[in-house]
Amino acid sequence: MARLKKNTLVLLAAGAALLICAVLSLLIGAVRIPPTELWQSLTQRDSAAGQILLHVRLPRLFAAALAGAALAVSGVLIQTVLQNPLASPGIIGVNAGAGLGAALFLAFLPGAVLLLPVAAFAGALASVLAVCALARRVNASRITLVLSGVAISALFTAGVNTIAVTHTNIMGALRDFQNGGFAGISAGAVATAAPLILLGLLPALLFAGELDVLGLGEESAASLGLNVRFYRLFFLTLAAVLAGAAVSFAGLLGFVGLMVPHMARRLLSGGKNGQRRKAPPNAESENNDLSKTCRRSKNALAEFGGGKRTLIALSALMGAAFLLLCDTIARTVFAPHELPTGILIAYLGVPFFLWLLFRERRKRRD
Amino acid sequence: MIEVKKLCGGYGGVRVLRGVSLTLEDGQLTAIIGPNGCGKSTLLRLCCGQLSPQRGEVWADGRPLGGLTRKETAQSISLLPQSRAVPDITAGALALHGRFPWLGYPRVCRAEDRAAAEQAMRRVGIWEKRGSLLARLSGGERQKAYLAMLLAQDTQNVLLDEPTVYLDIAHQLELFALLKNLAREGKCVAAVEHDLGLALDNADRVILLGEGGVLFSGTPQELIDSGAIAHAFGVELTRGDGYRFSSC
Hints:
The complex is a heterodimer. Chain A is an all-alpha fold. Chain A is built from 15 helices and no strands. In chain B, helix 3 (91-97) packs parallel to helix 5 and helix 4 (111-124) packs across helix 5.
């Protein structure tokens, strides 16, 4: 029960953090809105503050929250399926694939805006499948997989740059797209991608048990009766749906899918020590009563399926809060200039990635 | 019981096993031995349906494996694979994963599933570490956690691929005592083992693989008497207080 309570508390705390970040993102900006006037401004839409909230900050809030949740959950799925803590939609080139899909779409089918998330999804899926095929072909190590992603990412980014050069009319849009951020986001773009994000999030939560088993590795999962090939493709497709939908309106936001799942795991595992629950000193003494046994073991064994489900839910909440906070900082830190959110995240993400890389090397040496 | 009939199998175009026929009996601990690359792990993977046979068939408890669903196969045969991941979960959660084939959707564990996982953990001696992350356990403790998962799966047929890896000698003996007990309970237990001494000392039956097929199948004493070990491994086996191996 203690474990369940702790998970619930962590989820509630993440929810509260998201709420605080959401309120801050509504209040802070080029025009500051006093907290006492927030509700009044939201209800009086004709006022200047009401217009700002309705047409600028609310779409931006939903965009950042949805993109953060989608990219973070995409990261959880990719890291679990590939069994690689260094993997994420940004690192293995899924974001770049989505970016190329979106850039091709903007260049050649600029009218059909509703289909932009679908094009980004197609690019993301192509990228994730290419990396997986490469990794399987050469029986890749974790580092090889990351390097394959870097190579594919570079290729797709070159593709985006080529389109930017040959289609000068969308060069500005593509530059913003590559930087990643929420400046000038429209409610329509968010509304188009939101169903896709929900379509990715719900199955990820519903099939968390299968994801748990997949995390044991191919052979163990298969011996437990899981259709490994199907579920691997299923979860990677979900990851591509989530990353593609987020990239379609937020641009190339790297590192969210890497950092947030790690932070969430750390919160759930109780930090560095990893001893989640101290065993009772004399666990052998009351071994005969089945009902007692079940009650007692429930605490330590409460994590099957629920482990990944909690991780997915927490990552979604934390991802949303993280991007909201980053976006709020990015648009105020150099005011009146606005720093693209993707640049701020890169400043945070690169040191994090290096820390993770060296931690992995240390682990292997141990 | 697992029956293998004229089985051919391998990877891609490479045929590792060519026309293997054998039976892994209930109530027996069978050790599968053979030189590196002779197809021991391939045989186990074919026996539990992870690899499709190129020819021939596998029957589990009187039913052809090809006619079983993945779930039915996992309820009948469990496999401890050679390579084992270290996911970011506790030993207790890992043991509970063994109940996966027995769970309906949405994979919610019942009281009996938790009881089975607890019993399995107590049996392999990892219960006290149930709350520890796998990454924080020693290699031997991690191995025990995987064994607990295997026992929690509660199958009639238990296959293990090099189960003594990471274990010191005391734990190796403990493991084989556990496997013998499982066999005494009527289960069909088969383990790929590289330590010939351990295999000969503990198994009820030994299957020696080599040259794409079964070179020998019989009791450990029959294997020693046959001289097949010298043929397969190129080493001479002498028996005094224990086993001694020397190059031919």
